[in-house]
Amino acid sequence: MPELPERVTVERVQLGVRVEKRMVKVLKGLAEFDGITLGELLENIVLHSFEPVPGEEGESCASPHSKAALAAITDLKRIYGMDYDAHASRRFAPERDET
Question: The pTM is what?
Fold first, then answer.
């Protein structure tokens, strides 16, 4: 039986961040698909974004998502109307006060 890697002790803190509504729905759906918490999913995504693909530093990063998860992401984006990609965040307009 292979030896399990040593566990890493971490301290988690509460964040007060605002995230685009449709993206949150997709993230929550993906966390449920993966059987993990939303916080664990976000930690996994961030950690993978910090890991460059060898030889492509600054061009590519590792993806934490399996082929099945990527298919689920596509479905969740369609279901929740998340009709933008990674490059759109620079074009997000600030929220308007609807009053």
Answer: 0.76
